[in-house]
């Protein structure tokens, strides 16, 4: 039976789990989406032989909404994904992130490359490229919402 939730750092996260024996793919949603944003992609990955895990990230699951801003640090987001992979029994896994979920995927790739088979980022460049674009282009203006939500 697939996972419907998992725990990490005193929080409970909802997750959609396709179950199965294939390599694990963790799908990380962006803002303001949730795990359901991957519903159309999941059957394609399952038919290709993958086990798909699509969690609601911090701030989205009712049991995983800490109040303090520091409880959303990138290391904690990455730790949530590692806890999910551990709960699913996946020593190594693929991760796909969109938007803010891609930030967590990039952090995993940087801090825990030994756990990843592949990392795919949708709509979010490498963090160093993003930082450079903030000073070399009008990307800072286009990213106003990130500061607003802080």
Secondary structure blueprint with pairings:
Blueprint: E1 5-8, E2 11-17, E3 24-28, H1 42-47, E4 51-55, H2 74-87, E5 93-98, H3 100-111, E6 116-122, H4 127-136, H5 139-142, H6 144-149
Parallel strand pairs: 3-4, 3-5, 5-6
Antiparallel strand pairs: 1-2, 2-4
Strand order of the largest sheet: 1-2-4-3-5-6
| Span of the ends, CA to CA | 38 Å
- Low-confidence stretches are none
Q: Which word captures the global form? A: globular
| Tally of DSSP β-strands | 6
Radius of gyration: 15 Å
Helix content: 25-40%
User: Number of helical segments?
Assistant: 6
Give the oligomer, counting copies of the same chain as homo and different chains as hetero: single chain
What series of H and E elements makes up the topology? EEEHEHEHEHHH
Give the averaged pLDDT, no decimals.
90
Strand residue content: 15-25%
Largest sheet, strands/sense/barrel: 6 strands, mixed
Structural class: alpha/beta
Polypeptide structure, described:
- The protein has 150 residues and is α/β, with parallel strands linked by helices.
- It is built from 6 helices and 6 strands.
- It has helices spanning 42-47, 74-87, 100-111, 127-136, 139-142, 144-149; strands at 5-8, 11-17, 24-28, 51-55, 93-98, 116-122.
- The protein has a 6-stranded mixed β-sheet.
- A hairpin with a 2-residue loop joins strand 1 and strand 2.
- The longest helix is centred in the middle third of the chain and has 14 residues, at 74-87.
- It starts with a strand and ends with a helix.
- The mean pLDDT is 90.
């Amino acid at each position: 039976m697939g996972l419907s939730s998992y725990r990490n750092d005193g929080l409970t996260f909802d997750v959609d789990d396709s179950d199965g024996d294939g390599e694990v793919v963790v799908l990380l949603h962006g803002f303001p989406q949730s795990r359901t944003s991957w519903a159309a992609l999941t059957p394609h990955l399952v038919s290709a032989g993958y086990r798909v895990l699509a969690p609601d990230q911090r701030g989205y699951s009712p049991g995983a909404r800490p109040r303090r801003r520091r409880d959303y640090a990138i290391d904690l987001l990455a730790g949530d994904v590692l806890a999910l992979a551990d709960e699913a029994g996946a020593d190594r896994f693929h991760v796909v992130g969109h938007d803010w979920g891609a930030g967590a995927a990039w952090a995993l790739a940087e801090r825990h490359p030994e756990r990843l088979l592949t990392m795919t980022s949708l709509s979010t460049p490498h963090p160093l490229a993003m930082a450079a674009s903030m000073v070399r282009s009008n990307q800072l203006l286009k990213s106003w919402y990130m500061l607003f939500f802080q």
